[in-house]
Amino acid sequence: MIFKKSPLIVLVMILLVLVSTSFSVGAKDKKIKLRISWWGSETRHTATLKAIELYEQENPNIDLVPEYSGFDGYRNKLMSQVTAGNAPDIFTTVMEWYPDLLELNGLTDITGMVDVSGHNSKYVEACSMNGKMYGVNLSVNGMVLNQNKTLLSKLDIEPLQTPYTWEDMKNKFIEVYKKSDGKIYGAPDWSTIKNGMGFDIFKYFGYAKLNKKGAFPFNNKELTFDEQDLKEFYAYFKELRDSNAVAPTAISSLNDFSANSLLIRGTVAFEINYTGTFGRYQDQTNDNLNMLPLPLGPNGESGDLARPGLIFSVAKNSEHPKEAAKFIEWFTTSPEAAKVLKTSRGVLPTTSQREALLRNSDSLSENDTKVIEVVNKILERKLKLAYAGPSGYGDMALNLFPEYGQRIGYGQMSVAEAAHKLMQEINDMGN
Amino acid sequence: MRSKLSNLQLRKKFDSKEAVAAFVFLAPWLIGILVFTLWPFLESVIMSFQKTNLRTSSFIGLNNYIHLLHDRKFIKSILVTLKYVIISVPLKLAFALFIAMLLKDNIKGVGIFRSALYLPSLIGASVAIAAMWTQLFGYSGLINNVLNIFGIRGKPWISSPDTALYVLIVLAVWQFGSSMVIFISGLKNIPTSLYEAARVDGASKFQSFFKITLPMLSPIILFNFVLQTINSFQVFTQAFIITKGGPMNETLFTVLHIYNTAFTRLEMGYASAMSWTLLFIIAIFTGLIFLSAKHWVYYESE
């Protein structure tokens, strides 16, 4: 009845409630607010949120505000936020974004603010540029060849074993195609997929197949590859396509990490990706997957990079860089964090955390153990230093590289022509 | 005299009060258009003459525009967009008109049919539909599974350079609803006496469609035509989600290319120049349509 008689009273009451609640929030608001952003899958979200909760319990004066999403659109959103001076205090990045982020003046130099003594020094160097540390590695991550063992045994094929060469890999792929009567391919054609994986394989390919000794395909100042290198890479994949070792371009180019993954759908038996994504593949299938380090060159050359899988950086616009750095230190060194994060970002970055996790090994899933095992194998190899590359080539790895791969794949260009035109276009970008 | 004057004053006072109220209620919209449309609009004019990533910028005159003229990728994106507009808009309008003809009469359950057919347009530009399309036309999607039943081996429609654009065109045509609704209301406004007269004179259904319906509907057709053309030039979501512009830029619509240039390559100035060029192209096409209207649009008052 009161509602009918005096709507004004109701309105005043609502206002009072609103005002009083906002006051009570205001009173508590002495906490230091830190925004933190990352991308990933559900597993990573859950684990990270747990870690954040734990940190807030230990540090009641800190209020962490999570901003998380999938990878699609993350980079664009981050760059826009950095440009607007409104980036989260702590954000996830990869070293390849450093040049663009620095050009936008978006990174805080945190040298000396975070204890990195527990990290592998090559990874610390990879997180730095021009002698300044702009972030801390969150995971030791390596590229691996995932293989679907269940599918292989159905086809009566021996799974691939380490060590193996590029030639062994190709023959195995062809065997898959033949024994499945052309229904299943060995792997997707990475030279045509627009997710950056093709270019990452190109980096490995340079050391482990083209036998490059110096930094490849670039250091932080300049590109170090030429037309001939591109030609060799594209030619190898053309060979794989022509022998049906990899799926045709049209099928491969839609491959992704989730719903359209050719590995999950059983269209291919092998797939290259980072160890950090293994759980994601395995969670989507009942088949038994396992990981192998990438193939070796004829003289046993490998090209695994000490490339930080994911990096936490502190935004230049952050009002609390010290508190942000303190959180990152806790995140990357404390055993408590290790226990909740497990392998949600690949293998933990510091020895103290890895040990803490292994001590607690009953909480480790089968996936986790597999990932740790394969990363240990990779770490036994001689790691190459990873570079972010010179600035101004943002489009190269993600777009141009697979685009020319597709031109060859769809039969519009020869390998030589594509390599020549791509090199030309890349050189134009640099000018 | 006196009372008249005070009356006038009173009304003036009342008017200004009303005006204030009007502005208060309009404020959300006004602020929106000033801050989120007009300001970026002006800003982009300035940026189109600069090399800028929003942080640092330098004036480079017309260089962005000159560069556009021989930017292979931009020209490709314009051609792709044109192809899309030229094929999808007439198809969509024809389809909308066809369905509108079927649904203009008060048959049983017409409300349900109309809503059902309008639904795709409501949810059409959304990410969910685009994701659904990916599943429908994917290599092992529904379409290929159905084809399989008939023994036809389908192809990866979305990732084949010769079919990718048509997958997006089918999606656009499927969203004919809003044009359909406008057509239905237009059809209902045509006086039935004209049809009756035609019938008495022995005109066939086809004749009355071409001699009565089309001319009487032509202003509505013009309206839909212009609206759809402008909208189609700005196609973005579908390509962004389904094809990401690929394969080999066959679905790289201009707006998608602008988005990539601005947010992936961080070349805001160049991207602004592109959007102004696109606006110019849209203006030309809209202008052409209006010019041609003289020859085919019939207004009753003439």
UniProtKB/TrEMBL annotation, chain A:
Pfam families: SBP_bac_8. The keyword Transport applies. Keywords: Sugar transport, Transport. This is Multiple sugar transport system substrate-binding protein. It comes from Halanaerobium salsuginis. The lineage of its organism: Bacteria, Bacillati, Bacillota, Clostridia, Halanaerobiales.
Automatic annotation (TrEMBL), chain B:
Keywords: Cell membrane, Membrane, Sugar transport, Transmembrane, Transmembrane helix, Transport. GO terms for biological process: transmembrane transport. GO terms for cellular component: plasma membrane. Residues 78-289 form the ABC transmembrane type-1 domain. It is found in: Cell membrane. The chain crosses the membrane at residues 20-42, 84-103, 115-136, 164-187, 208-227, 273-293. It is a multi-pass membrane protein. Signal peptide: none annotated. Pfam families: BPD_transp_1. It comes from the Bacteria. Belongs to the binding-protein-dependent transport system permease family. This is Multiple sugar transport system permease protein. It comes from Halanaerobium salsuginis.
